[in-house]
Amino acid sequence: RKIVSVIGTRPQYVKAAAVSRELRKQFHEVLVDTGQHYDYKMAGVFFEELELPRPDYNLGVGSGTHGKQTAAMISGLEELLIKECPDGVLVYGDTNSTLAGALVASKLHIPLFHIEAGLRSFNPKMPEEINRKLTDHISDVLFAPTDTAVRNLRSEGITRNVLQVGDVMLDAVNYYWSRSKDAYTPETFGLVREEYYLATIHRAENTDDPIRLKAIVEAFIKLETPLLLPLHPRTLNRLQTMGLAAELAQSPHIRLIEPVSYLAMLQLERHAKGIITDSGGVQKEAYFAGVPCFTLRSETEWTETLSGGWNVLVDPLRDDLSAIVARSGIPAVKSDVYGDGRATRDIVDHMLEWYEGYPLSKQVS
Ligand code: UD1
Ligand code: UDP
């Protein structure tokens, strides 16, 4: 059977690297990259380093407004899916690439599988919240990572073919961990273990609001501890436009660098004193690594990371990041809420079952 997987952004390359390996044991996968991310450090490096198969198609959509970007993806994907005539379409997460893949598959009546279903921030202004809700409501099979995700779906009336499988990013960490250890150390970046913070920022709510972005920059400057900041191109653009990049770069404890590769990121995360982020994936990776996380947002979809104090929500406009970071310690307990690292295998097994018409095991009703 033929499955078209639609990806297009950095976190989707990581997730697909884990899933694709399992999927290809049972299905013929046609990999489609929408080209939403295109810089080598946001896209190409992941294909090389993670040995993600070369995409069969790259739609080359690139950046744009939500409307233009999503429309170009829809148009490209429609043509492609009509030509390829697959038995299913697989989408990941909550980006514009996810929504485009979901809409086209659904309108062409091609079975739609959604990995990372059921996540909710309950913030209707977040573009990702719109993408994930719409995708969940038109998916045929929903792979939910956590209990919370299953509950969120149930509260919206989605109970059919919802399968709790754990988080595919945990499978990715487990698979790539030893390679990452062999390839990088914090010293590669001139850092001393446990003596630096690692930060990533890219959420629209932080980058596109000049007051918020300035508050984040000021909080970073006040931190006065070595801080490595691999900058998403969106953030670099905004900082430059606002004249804040120079201010950051002049602070002796801050190092601005280009986005790093996944294998480098895993080591930088593991040996950090703490991680400051607004990324969904990085919040989870901090939890997997057992490193305290400070999330510069008002809410998180990954609510499990908050329990025990592993992750703390910090409002850059109201809260004092340095004081919160200084007060934090390593919490005592951590649970395996994100599964047992078998999510990718479970997903492929359930997909096989679904095609065979068996009642899906582990189904939540
Ligand atoms: C997108 C996703 C977000 C995800 C993030 C992962 C949507 C709505 N957002 O956000 O959910 O968390 O990816 O990183 O789908 N740019 C480049 N080079 C690139 C990619 C982007 O320069 O290779 C710059 C462009 O100026 C672009 C901006 O970054 O306009 C934003 O890129 P876009 O893909 O629209 O959204 P992200 O912020 O990356
Ligand atoms: N990541 C990376 N290099 C970086 C920043 C992030 O490899 O410089 C990885 C990170 O380890 C995680 C994924 O990218 O696996 C998260 O992607 P991102 O933060 O862009 O998106 P989100 O998860 O918020 O959607």
UniProtKB/TrEMBL annotation:
Keywords of this protein's UniProt record, alphabetized?
Isomerase
| Ranges of residues in domain UDP-N-acetylglucosamine 2-epimerase | 24-351
Give the first-level EC class, as a single word. isomerase
EC number(s) recorded for this UniProt protein:
5.1.3.14
InterPro entries per record: UDP_GlcNAc_Epimerase_2_dom (IPR003331), WecB-like (IPR029767)
Q: Name one GO molecular function term.
A: UDP-N-acetylglucosamine 2-epimerase activity
Q: Which SUPFAM superfamilies match?
A: UDP-Glycosyltransferase/glycogen phosphorylase (SSF53756)
Q: Which NCBIfam families match?
A: wecB
- Please give the family membership noted in the entry: Belongs to the UDP-N-acetylglucosamine 2-epimerase family.
PANTHER family hit by this protein: UDP-N-ACETYLGLUCOSAMINE 2-EPIMERASE
Q: What is the protein's given name?
A: UDP-N-acetylglucosamine 2-epimerase (Non-hydrolyzing)
Please name the taxonomic classification of the source. Bacteria, Bacillati, Bacillota, Bacilli, Bacillales
